[in-house]
Here is the input.
Amino acid sequence: MRKLLGLISIFALVGVAAGANGAGATPPSGPPPDVKEYGRAQQVEGGKVIASSGYDVQHTTYTLAPGGDTGWRNGPGSTTLALIKGALKIEQASGCATRALTAGSAVVLPAGKFRLQNTDKEPAEILANFTNLPSGGGAPMDGEAGSAPDCAGFAAAAVANGLSADKTFRGDPTAYYNQVHAGHHGSDGYASSEIPVEVDKDAVMMTFVLQPGFSTGWFAHTPHVAIITKGSWAFFEARDGKCEKVEEYRAGDAWVHPVHRHMGAVQGNEPVEITVFGFNMNHGDPKPVLGSQPDHLDFFHAPPSECPTQLR
Here is the structure.
């Protein structure tokens, strides 16, 4: 599994780069975070991740044993699958389609029925992101399998076997849609957000543990779905000639961010835990790119004149 460069090293690298040719950049401050990466895979086709207000989002890591089968599952929203190890056969009710997914590849399935089968001799390791889940309800691969679609060549029924979930993170993006923040969908009448997924770019899933006193400084990031499971977190932007807290989240909340520049900081005296399912990173690059083209995290941004360089 590809590992991210530790953010302690990133802090040092940002400082060197900012001093050399990035005057005004504001690297992170405070205690360095702990970062766990679950895996990274190339997006083998385009698609859309769609998350709507009033519904939950979820990130889960799965293992599917050799010869294992999920049975038929129904995704009420988009389902992103990043295969880290092994090989899968994917059947979809939409178009009665069948495809193979190899290790290191990721796809986004639209809403509808799907079935996964492990066609390899080793366990398949899968990272999954689900959107538009019923509030407080189950996820597509929970519980018993459902009935098969009316497609020639598809099994009439499939009993789930060999599937186990390891890590699960779940959140409600309602707070995101109820807050006003420039460049995002929110209380301006939009009820859902879309992340266009670009072919040949990478998807990744990782958890950040951030200590009290930590601030990102001004940075940009690629699009992602984030879930906060511990603590309180806020984003700041320049607004009407002053620096404003435009988004605030607590454990159980989620957000859907496009490419965007802002500043984030831990609120209060408790550590924060955020798990991100990110999209559209440069393929094969295991660490953030410090330059004008952001790859997940880009700290090469000077602050607006209305806002401080760092929050203490």
In short: Helices lie at 7-21, 174-177. The first strand starts at residue 34 and ends at 43.
